[in-house]
Design goal:
about 625 residues; alpha/beta; binds alpha-L-arabinofuranose
Length: about 625
C-alpha cells in the first residue's frame, strides 16, 4: 500500500517547502506513507489529514482505510495521507512523528497498542486535533474517540451462541484476537456475560490467532484432535472464523456452528460467509473511518458540540436478517416524508441550574431543526415520565427521547415503545435494564469519569498523607449520575487510606436540599470536616450557605468540590468559597436533534456518544467563566 499518488507541489502540505519535494517524494515511497484523494487542480488545499493505521494485513483494517479514503475524497479542500505501521508499535510511534513533521492539520490514528501509543497521541494532541479510531488510548488526551463497543459485540455473540446451543447446552471453542489486547479482552468478557444465563453452555477451549485467518486455520488444524469437543466456535473476527471453518472441513468436523464479528461486505466478507452458510451469524463492526473524516472536518472548522467518544452500533447478521433486508423494509423516513418530525421528550424535572440549561438547549435545538417537540416535565417522578412515554406512544410520535430519573424500572414501558415500533433515545442519563436493544442510542456524560476527575483533583491538591474527612452530597438515589459519580470518586480515593467518607447523604440534586442536608451534618458531626464532594454544584452552593451559617469559611476551612460547572459555581469560586467544579455538559439539544434527523433519514446511529468535558479549579475560574454558555 505504500507509494505516492497524485502528489504535486500544489498539493503538498504548506509546511513542506518546494525545495523539499524530492526528499518528501523519497520519503513517501520509501517510508510506507501513501497519499490519496486526487485533487481537482482549481481547489486549494486547506487541510492536510494524516492517518496512522496499525496494519494493513487484517481485512477490517483495510476496510477502515478505504472508508477514510473514500470519505476524504468527498472534500476537495482536504488532502489525505496515510501510513501503515505493519503492526509494529515502534514504527507507529515514528509514523505519528513523521506525519506531524509533514505538517498535517489533523491526525487520525488507529493504534496497534493502546498503552504504548498513549504518549504519542498525547504529544500529537498538544499540537493538533487527534481522532483515535477503534482502540482507545489511556486517559482523555485526544479530541475524539470513535470505535466499536467490544464488550457489547461479545455479549451479543454470546446470546447467539446460547440460542444455537439450545436448551441441551454444549461446548464452545473461542478463538481470540490477541492476548491482552483491549478489544480481545472486552469481546471475551462480553461473550461470557452473553452465555451466563445458559448454565450448560461451556467454553471448552481457547485459541489465540492474532486476528488472522491463516493463523486460526493453522492453530486449529494443529490442535483439533487434542482439544476437547465443541459444538460452536466463537471467533472474535470473521477472518479467524473462516480459517477455523477451513480447519474443521479438512478434519472432517462438520456440523460445527460458527459465529464471527466484522460483517464486512464484499467477496469472502462476513456477510457473504453468512449467505453461504459458513457462518451462522456475524455482527457488523463499523470501522468508524467515514465518521472520523466527517468529525475531523468539524474539528478543523472548529465547530462546537463535538462529542468526546462515539461508540458505533453493531448489527446482527444471520440468514434471516439478510432475507429480511433483501425484501427491503420501509425506511423510517418514509413515515415522516412530507411533514415535520415529531419528537416526544420526557425530562427529569427542574431540579438544578444544569437541568434548566439542558431543557433550554433541547427546546431551542428542536425549534432550530424544525422538529415538533412535545415536552413533558417529569417533576422528579418516574411514574410521570412513564405516563409521558405512554402518551407519546398513543400519539404515535416518530421518536421518543428521555432522561431517566432513575436507572431501573423502565423495562415495561420500553417494551411497549418497541412493540409500537417507536425508537427510544436516551439523553443525559442511561437506564440499567437487561435488554439494551430496547433503546437505540444514548448521549450524555461519562459520570464515572466525572467522579474520578473530582477525586484526582482532590488527591493532587490535598495529598496522600494528612487525614481528610469527606462529606459526600449525593444526587437522587438510583440515578445514573449519582451511581456513576460515587463509583468513580470512590475508585480513586480507595488507593489513599488518608481519605474517609464520614457522611454520605442525598440532596436529590436540589440546592435547598444541599443546604438542609449539610446543615444537619454540621449539627450532628463531631469530627472535623475537611472536604465536601457534592454530586452537583447546586447542592454544593446550598452546602456553602450552611457552612457559612455555622461560622466556618467554605473554600478555606472546608474544601468544596462540585460537578456541573454552572455559572453560580464559577461565581462561588471567584469569591473564594468553592475550590473546583468538574464539568458536566448540558448542551445536548443539537446532538439529540441530529440523531433524530439521522434516524429519520435511515442512517445508522451510534450506540453511545460521550460528551466532551473538562475540569475547572478556582485558580482559573475568573478567566474560564468568560463566554460560557451555561
Ligand atoms: O443528570 C445530570 C445531573 O442531573 C446534573 O449533574 C445535575 O445537576 C442534574 O440535576
Amino acid at each position: 500500500m505504500s507509494g505516492a499518488a497524485g502528489i504535486s507541489p500544489r498539493s503538498l502540505p504548506r509546511a513542506v517547502p518546494a525545495a523539499g519535494l524530492l526528499a518528501l517524494l523519497a520519503a513517501l515511497s520509501l517510508g510506507g506513507l501513501a497519499a490519496c484523494s486526487p485533487v481537482p487542480r482549481q481547489t486549494p488545499i486547506r487541510y492536510l489529514v494524516g492517518f496512522s493505521q496499525a496494519n494493513l494485513s487484517e481485512p477490517w483494517r483495510i476496510a477502515m482505510t478505504e472508508d477514510v479514503k473514500a470519505e476524504a475524497a468527498r472534500y476537495p479542500e482536504m488532502r489525505f495521507i496515510y501510513t501503515d505501521a505493519a503492526d509494529s508499535t515502534g514504527r507507529q510511534i515514528e509514523d505519528v512523528q513523521r506525519l506531524l513533521e509533514y505538517g498535517i492539520d489533523l491526525l487520525i490514528i488507529s493504534p496497534t497498542d493502546s498503552r504504548a501509543l498513549t504518549p504519542s497521541v498525547r504529544w500529537a494532541y498538544a499540537r493538533i486535533p487527534v481522532i483515535v479510531l477503534d482502540r482507545d488510548v489511556e486517559g482523555y488526551d485526544y479530541s475524539l474517540f470513535i470505535g466499536p463497543d467490544n464488550e457489547r459485540l461479545g455479549r451479543e455473540a454470546g446470546k447467539v451462541a446460547s440460542e444455537l446451543l439450545g436448551s441441551q447446552g454444549g461446548s464452545i471453542l473461542e478463538i481470540g484476537g490477541r492476548s491482552g489486547s483491549p478489544p480481545s479482552v472486552d469481546r471475551s468478557e462480553g461473550f461470557r456475560r452473553g452465555i451466563a444465563d445458559r448454565k450448560n453452555a461451556l467454553i471448552s477451549g481457547t485459541i489465540v490467532a492474532d486476528w488472522l485467518r491463516d493463523r486460526a486455520e493453522d492453530e486449529l488444524s494443529a490442535r483439533i484432535r487434542t482439544l476437547p469437543g465443541f459444538d460452536v466456535i466463537f471467533a472474535q473476527n470473521d477472518a479467524m472464523a473462516y480459517g477455523a471453518w477451513r480447519a474443521c472441513q479438512v478434519a472432517g468436523r462438520t456440523g460445527i456452528k460458527l459465529i464471527g464479528i466484522d460483517g464486512l461486505a464484499g467477496p469472502m466478507g462476513g456477510i457473504e460467509l453468512v449467505r453461504k452458510g459458513i457462518l451462522s451469524a456475524t455482527f457488523t463492526c463499523p470501522t468508524g473511518g467515514k465518521e472520523a473524516v466527517i468529525y475531523g472536518m468539524d474539528l478543523l472548522q472548529k465547530k462546537e458540540g463535538i462529542p468526546k467518544k462515539i461508540y458505533l452500533r453493531p448489527n446482527k447478521v444471520t440468514l434471516e436478517t439478510l432475507v429480511a433486508s433483501d425484501s427491503g423494509p420501509a425506511s423510517p423516513r418514509d413515515r415522516a416524508l412530507g411533514r415535520r418530525i415529531v419528537l416526544g421528550f420526557a425530562q427529569v424535572g427542574a431540579e438544578s441550574e444544569w437541568r434548566a440549561a439542558n431543557t433550554k438547549s433541547i427546546k431551542s435545538a428542536a425549534a432550530k431543526a424544525g422538529i415538533d417537540l412535545i415536552f413533558v416535565d417529569g417533576e422528579q417522578r418516574q411514574e410521570k415520565q412513564i405516563d409521558a412515554i405512554r402518551s407519546f406512544i398513543k400519539r404515535r410520535v416518530d421518536v421518543i427521547a428521555f432522561s431517566p430519573f432513575v436507572e431501573s424500572g423502565w423495562d415495561e414501558v420500553l417494551n411497549e415503545a418497541m412493540a409500537a415500533g417507536i425508537p427510544v433515545i436516551l439523553t443525559d442519563r442511561t437506564v440499567g435494564i437487561k435488554d439494551n436493544s430496547l433503546w437505540l442510542s444514548f448521549m450524555g456524560s461519562d459520570f464515572v469519569e466525572e467522579g474520578r476527575r473530582a477525586a484526582r483533583w482532590v488527591v493532587e491538591e490535598l495529598g496522600s498523607s494528612n487525614p481528610v474527612n469527606i462529606v459526600e452530597l449525593q444526587g437522587n438515589i438510583g440515578a445514573a449520575p449519582t451511581i456513576g459519580r460515587k463509583a468513580g470518586f470512590e475508585e480513586v480515593i480507595r488507593d489513599f487510606p488518608n481519605y474517609s467518607i464520614i457522611a454520605s447523604e442525598s440532596g436529590g440534586f436540589f440546592r435547598e436540599q444541599g443546604y438542609s442536608v449539610m446543615k444537619g451534618i454540621l449539627a450532628s458531626e463531631s469530627r472535623e470536616i475537611d472536604l465536601v464532594f457534592s454530586h452537583n454544584d447546586d447542592m454544593a452552593i446550598g452546602a456553602i450557605q450552611a457552612i457559612k451559617e455555622k461560622g466556618l469559611r467554605p473554600g478555606r476551612d472546608i474544601v468544596i468540590v462540585g460537578v456541573d460547572a454552572i455559572k453560580d459555581a464559577f461565581k462561588a469560586m471567584a469569591a473564594g468559597e468553592m475550590n473546583c467544579s468538574v464539568e458536566c455538559n448540558p448542551i445536548l439539544g443539537p446532538q439529540l436533534m441530529k440523531v433524530v434527523q439521522d434516524y429519520m433519514a435511515g442512517k445508522d446511529l451510534p450506540i453511545r456518544m460521550i460528551t466532551s468535558e473538562g475540569i475547572f479549579p478556582a485558580a482559573t475560574a475568573r478567566r474560564d467563566m468568560v463566554g460560557r454558555e451555561y
